[in-house]
Amino acid sequence: MFEMLFDAVSGSGNVSPGEYLLLLGAALVMGLVIAWTFTWKTDHTKGFAVMLSLLPAVAATIVLMVSGSLGASVAVAGTFSLVRFRSAPGTAREIGALLMAMTAGLACGMGWPLLAGLFTLTMCLAYTILMRTPFGEPRREELKKTLNVTLPEDLAYADLFADVFETFTTQAQMTQVKTTNLGSLNRLTYNVTLRRAGEEKAFIDALRCRNGNLEISLAERCGEEDRL
Length: 228
Description:
- The chain contains seven helices and six strands; from the N terminus they run ββαααααβαββαβ.
- The chain is an alpha+beta fold.
- The protein has two domains: 9-131, no CATH class; 141-220, Alpha-Beta Plaits (2-Layer Sandwich).
- It has a four-stranded antiparallel β-sheet with strand order 4-5-3-6.
- α1 (17-39) runs antiparallel to α2, α2 packs antiparallel against α3 (70-85) and α3 runs antiparallel to α4.
């Protein structure tokens, strides 16, 4: 089985190392385009963006290995189902690393060590470059805050702060409404993104004029896990 180090049989014949690197490069480019498209102006983590850009290359290698082999296809499907659904939920980085490690192991087990080596080197290099560049980093994390505002329970709050949010934030989304003090007060929770740094005090002062000078808190937004 090992006399042909790179006989990854596809529909058009054997694939040479150069052709494989060309296919892998094309998959990486498409992954970057997809990652940029789906993370543009949305809340996300760097790990999610990086792993999303690498997954097309993983999938391309898997398809290349199992092409034309029903037995290999069934084995790969079972292996990846075991990894994904029989392990504890992880972040995008952890799941992506598992998928890449399984792909390299499958390539070696199927007698294609050169393919496994090229895959591992290319993917590790791409991962290192992407993690060391600003690619996928959420913009201005310091401006993302969690706002808690306490209101009297008889005060309508639907559009109470609309103009204040328009002045001081670029995004404001209510995430929770909770009664407190035996139902005499409501506590509203928002995820907000401030327009400029250093305006926290002016923002809070504007809110105090609307909530009867009750409790207000503005804190760093809790980090979101980079799940796939």
